[in-house]
Design brief:
By secondary structure, this protein is mainly α. It contains nine helices and four strands.
Length: about 220
């Protein structure tokens, strides 16, 4: 009787000693014969070590790129830094206006075609069938490049300066203006036409425009 009890105790001790764990690499269950074993085999141990090394190399590469980016940024002149901030602010605003108008179901502000008509006629284009076009071009009127009322949805052909209206003797910009009056009213369009005030944005203002429009764009895409 005592021998039976002893053997039962030994078996219980063995059952408790043998632990099952899940392999950190292949995720299969295995008997953990050593207390610190985290993988099921030598093959998985080698592969896990390689994966860790690859991850460490990626982290190091990212860190190196950040250092290079900081150094390159330090080499830029104040004028270059300002220009870059303006570009980033404008891109964020244009992305937001483009997405906003697409979501509303607006068509091209120049030729008046609907989204379905543009896609059906022009087909797929890199970056989509529509751009965020400026009523007053930023080359001639850079002071309006960050004015929301100056940025509207345009099909790519109109934004490039050609459309079916060019063949009828009407320019794209003229048709843009006529449709914009229908959209926001003559007073706001004339206000844009008369606005020749120079804009001197501070870095803080440009960062705020960029970040605000990125946040609005994120909300629109939900």
């Amino acid at each position: 009787s005592s021998d039976v009890c002893s053997s039962d105790l030994v078996l219980n001790w063995m059952r408790q000693s043998v632990r099952k764990n899940r392999c950190k690499y292949c995720k299969t269950e295995f008997v953990q014969l050593r207390p610190l074993a985290v993988v099921c085999s030598l093959e998985c141990a080698i592969k896990q070590a390689q994966a860790k090394r690859t991850k460490s190399e990626r982290v190091a590469q990212i860190a190196d790129r950040k250092v290079v980016k900081v150094k390159l940024n330090d080499l830029k002149t104040p004028k270059q830094k300002k220009s870059e901030l303006i570009q980033h602010a404008e891109k964020a605003l244009r992305d937001r206006r483009r997405t906003e108008e697409l979501k509303k179901g607006s068509g091209c502000m120049s030729c008046g075609r609907s989204q379905q008509e543009v896609i059906g006629t022009d087909g797929w284009k890199p970056g989509g069938a529509f751009d965020a076009g400026h009523y007053h071009g930023k080359g001639a009127r850079p002071n309006l490049r960050l004015t929301p009322d100056n940025i509207w949805l345009q099909c790519k052909s109109c934004n490039a300066g050609s459309s079916k209206y060019a063949r009828k003797g009407a320019t794209v910009s003229k048709q843009f203006r006529e449709n914009l009056i229908k959209e926001i009213g003559l007073d706001r369009v004339e206000e844009l036409d008369a606005d020749d005030k120079a804009r001197h944005w501070t870095d803080e203002e440009l960062i705020e425009i960029r970040d605000t429009n990125k946040k609005l764009l994120k909300e629109l895409r939900k």
